[in-house]
Amino acid sequence: MDFVTFNRGVVIEVDGGQHGQLNQMDRKRDDWFCDQGYTVLRFWNNEIFTNIDAVLMTIEQSINRPSPPIKGGEE
User: Fold this and answer.
1) Other beta carbons less than 10 A from residue 13's beta carbon
2) pTM exceeding 0.85
3) N or C: which end of the chain has fewer CB within 10 A?
4) Measured between alpha carbons, how far is residue 60 from residues 20, 65, 69 in Å?
């Protein structure tokens, strides 16, 4: 995990070339976060360098929508 906002339930992953494709470990971790109520956003390094406005818009939309309660989080 690269970034997380606990109160909005969003995990942000920034992937470089070493991730090539979503590997089994990444998928397993994403599934765990989703099972806990988090939204996982993945961006390629290239997206950040070439289209930061779209990346930021996606993040903003995700953190501004109502989020379900996070398992183990405060009510």
Assistant:
1) 19
2) no
3) C
4) 26, 9, 19
3-state secondary structure 13-61: EEECHHHCCCCHHHHHHHHHHHHCCCEEEEEEHHHHHHCHHHHHHHHHH
Q: What span, in angstroms and rounded, lies between the C-alpha atoms of 41 and 62?
A: 9
Please provide residue 64's backbone torsions phi and psi, each rounded to the nearest 5 degrees: -95, -10
**What are the b/e assignments for 23-45, b being 16+ CB within 10 Å?**
eeeeeeebeebeeeebbbbebbe
Q: What is the pLDDT of residues 22-54, one digit of tens each?
A: 678 888 889 999 999 999 999 989 999 999 999
